[in-house]
Amino acid sequence: MRPGRSLVPSTSIESETGSGKTEAALWRFAHMYEAGLVDGLYFALPTRSAAVQIHERVERFIRNLFPRGVPPVVLAVPGYEPGVDASSVAMQDYEPWWEDRHDDDRPWASKSPKRYLAAQIAVGTVDQAMMCALQVKNAHMRAACLARNLLVVDEVHASDTYMSVVLEALINAHVRAGGYALLMSATSARRRAIAGCITARDLTMISRLAKPKTLPTPPSAYRMAGTTIS
């Protein structure tokens, strides 16, 4: 999983649930970030509840990865309090946000759904990324923000036919813009359907991950600059 100069832009992981795909994706991001290949991460999941659950795990990993100057992990799920931990509950009411308000300490990228992809690290629903490939307002801004991030799409097997077509367009556009993508699935059929539009030169597959006995924990003294990730 350590990236090199010849790293292909699109990779897929096919393995059963609970085999460590999430941790593999996070470590891949860490290695790519250290190598200067990406500036951030967008971790996309099919449902709001799945995004809320994964958010806490990603936040814990990022805290260990950056002992100083920890970037906020934005919860890119409309209807939930953004910029806080995954134990948040759905907001009962939306409060208008005014540009001249200075008492709001939430990250700028979490204050509006159209800004979610501007976050350095974000966990959210896959539809936020899919809007980059649709003819909708702010699509180009979303795509530009995503271009330097590693796009991780989890539970690809949960995609229906429509989502698969849009994901194909999204991955192709993201790769052509110089971005990197990682598709994760518990089954191969849907992953192969989505990957079918990507040339063999651009796609590698990591198949059947062995379930680890213990998951790796980043060292507390970890430093991003001038250090090799172990």
From TrEMBL:
UniProt GO MF annotations: ATP binding; endonuclease activity; nucleic acid binding
Ranges where the DEAD/DEAH-box helicase domain occurs: 12-189
Domain of life, source organism: Eukaryota
Keyword flag Lyase: no
Keyword Hydrolase among record annotations: yes
Keyword tags: Endonuclease, Hydrolase, Nuclease
CDD domains: DEXHc_cas3
Protein name (Swiss-Prot/TrEMBL): CRISPR-associated endonuclease/helicase Cas3
Organism of provenance: Geodia barretti
